[in-house]
Sequence to fold (319 residues):
Amino acid sequence: MNKHRVCVAPMMQYTDLHDRFFLRLISKNIFLYTEMISTGSIIFGNCLYQFDFNKEEHPVAVQLGGSNPNHLSECSKIAEDYGYDEVNLNVGCPSERVQKGKFGACLMLEPNLVAECVTKMSQAVSIPITVKCRLGIDNNNEYEFLENFINIVKVTGIKTFVIHARNGILKGLSPRQNRNIPPLKYDYVYRLKRDNPDLNIIINGGIKNLDESINHLKYVDGVMIGRASYDNPFMLSNVDEVIYKTQTVKKDKLEILNEYIDYILVMEKKGYDLSRMLKHLFGLSKGDKNAKLFRKRVHEIMLAGNLKDNRNKLIELIN
Ligand SMILES: Cc1cc2nc3c(=O)[nH]c(=O)nc-3n(C[C@H](O)[C@H](O)[C@H](O)COP(=O)(O)O)c2cc1C
Fold:
């Protein structure tokens, strides 16, 4: 079974190592991605801790942001040594800060440079290198723009492309608007797969639930879900059975909560911030009758800074 069938999108400030541990309690098979790590912060910034992850997270990819082939290859090597299963290159982030660093979505305008980066990265490691990109940039609305980008990059031999199925607008839209305003064009991604049956094409953008995922999987090799799975992580609880067809024991919300609390208490002793770990729980009660109260209680525990003594106050609200 293709391990990219269901991926959770890289999201800065969200898919940190704690969130990934939490999600792994819900599904054994989903493919996880780190937040974007910029090569500059590793090469010049003493920020190696960003590579930290829990051994339970596999399969997990690190996402790099950068455009200097040597820096990207050096960081890929570090990621491989840390034990990551894949290195993904960010060619989709439209933020101004990232544009100033000349990486992210603006690289779609420089497919030859992307190919050079990917070649160097592939030469440095034996784990797969993958690319996450948009359909196009600004007014490049034609399918041929995406086709040309992929044709140039695929010559490097890389096989997996994650496509956020909307354009990136470099001027005038914030990153948030860039995730909502440019229209979704799933048909371009389906066509890309039809034109390149040998590539592993993962579709991303606006996917809300498992039913929609199953529909996309008729046309492409995998789906990547971001906001919907963060807001309602338990939606991933049927993925192992329904999509990966594996016989894992499905945990209920109470078991997930208990195991995640145990994890938080251990990590708190190691110095990790309690609120940052707790915030990933907000979505767990989505759809339950106590959802609002549960979220309020999580918030209160953040403010009190004491989970150990308040554990039961959370447990009693989940069902
Ligand atoms: C808060 C937030 C942070 C994000 N950070 C990243 C990132 O670090 N790297 C990246 O490639 N995409 C990032 N994205 C974009 C997502 O990976 C994804 O492409 C986008 O949200 C569309 O998928 P969705 O509609 O399922 O959320 C981020 C999205 C959000 C909401």
Observations:
- Residues 253-315 form one domain.
- The chain has a mean pLDDT of 97.
